[in-house]
Amino acid sequence: MNSLKSIDIEFVRAQFPAFSEPSLDGWIHFENAGGSYVPSQVVDLLTGFYRRSKVQPYGPGGPALAAGDAMDRGMAAITATLNAPAGSVQLGPSTTQNTYVAARALRPLMEEGDRVVVTNQDHEANIGSWRRLGETGVEIVEWQVDPITGLLDIADLAELLNDRTRLVCVTHASNLAATVNPVREIADMVHAVGGLVAVDGVSYAPHGAIDVEALDCDLYFYSTYKTWGPHQGAVYCRPEILDRLANQGHYFNAKYPTKRLSPAGPDHAQVAAVAGIVDYYDAVYEHHFPLDSAAAGSFERISTVLDLFGHHEEVLMGPLLDFLGEKGVRLVGSSSADHTVRAPTIAFVPQGVAPSAVVDHMAQRSIGIGHGDFYAARLIDAMGIDPIEGVVRVSMVHYNTREEVDLAISALDEVI
């Protein structure tokens, strides 16, 4: 495999219409953890579907046949991003709703007094629905973060597991702490006591390849609007678990495992458009690795491209983390710039200035960042951070540039 580690940032940015949009000229988008820009590959598929195929899909010919084929291609593409077997991945309107549906589907597999372990590090979308199982007689136990760093210690999890543990719900990388949790190690521990593992990958997915087989997780969730796509949520469920789930769809669809986590019909156009995510990965791969022959749309290509992205993200977050360290801010999560250790989502509490004032100052410099709890209210509370102001969050992805980081550091230096 080609060992090239330097991204062609001009090529990458040329794939995104936002960077040639006059109304966005001069604007720096550092709120990617809230939603990423979309490449032309996705835009073209979405608009093309509405122009040519906005009919009931899966008919025997014409636009109905084309619509069904486009949706099948989208499902195959999103399945490839997880290195998952065919039929094990479904799309829904959001990760929040997918998690809610999955919790209802799993509940009949548990008895009163069975244990579910959740963290206080996660986005509420991954833990709120599981915590509600406590209202049905399931015991909810919290795996708590270190109140100083916001990080989880796997040794603490070992003390929470017992022979009645049925499920452990954990984030792959928190949307504030952004530090990669050891999912495979967690899965091995939980499976040893007969439990299942549900992983929220929303904040990890833009930054690293997700191999559900290597992770050995039972459920995995992520949002395609964080990974250059339309607003959909992807959910993987291990096939043997999917076969046991309580049907959440129409009663006559109970015989179809791929519909058991789908209470409503799919958004046809958006399902088709997610194929553009992998088309984008293919374009990046072919540009950077023209002599390699990995199959188009394959997990091999996807993981190579995401590794390329990760190395570029190290270049982005290193200077910002160094600057924040010199300023003595309170950083949430690891201070490492290694992309295998943390994602480039940098959350911190400045000294002597409110996070909202920092965000307002940056907006005046045409730099978009955010402040608040970002739906990780339990993590903010555990760390003793002001729940109203929350943290400042600067979230970068591979299409951001070192020059943008330098401008952000200069602007932050003016206010903190």
List the strand order in the largest sheet.
2-8-7-6-5-3-4
SS field, number of helical segments: 15
Order of helices and strands: HEHHEHEHEHEHEHEEHHHHEEHEEHEH
CATH superfamily of the largest domain: Type I PLP-dependent aspartate aminotransferase-like (Major domain)
By helix and strand content, what is the structural category? alpha/beta
Query: What percent of residues are in strands?
Result: 5-15%
What is the number of E strands? Answer: 13
- Can you give the helix content as a percent range? 25-40%
Q: Looking at CATH, which topology of the largest domain would you report?
A: Aspartate Aminotransferase, domain 2
Number of domains: 2
CATH class label of the largest domain? Alpha Beta
For the termini, the CA-CA separation is 44 Å
Strand and helix layout:
Layout: H1 9-14, E1 28-29, H2 40-52, H3 62-80, E2 89-92, H4 95-106, E3 115-119, H5 124-131, E4 139-143, H6 154-160, E5 165-171, H7 183-192, E6 196-200, H8 212-215, E7 219-223, E8 233-237, H9 239-242, H10 268-273, H11 275-288, H12 299-327, E9 330-331, E10 345-349, H13 355-364, E11 367-368, E12 370-372, H14 377-382, E13 391-395, H15 402-415
Parallel strand pairs: 1-11, 3-4, 3-5, 5-6, 6-7
Antiparallel strand pairs: 2-8, 7-8, 9-10, 10-13, 12-13
Helix pairs in contact: 2-11, 3-11, 4-5, 11-12, 12-15, 13-15
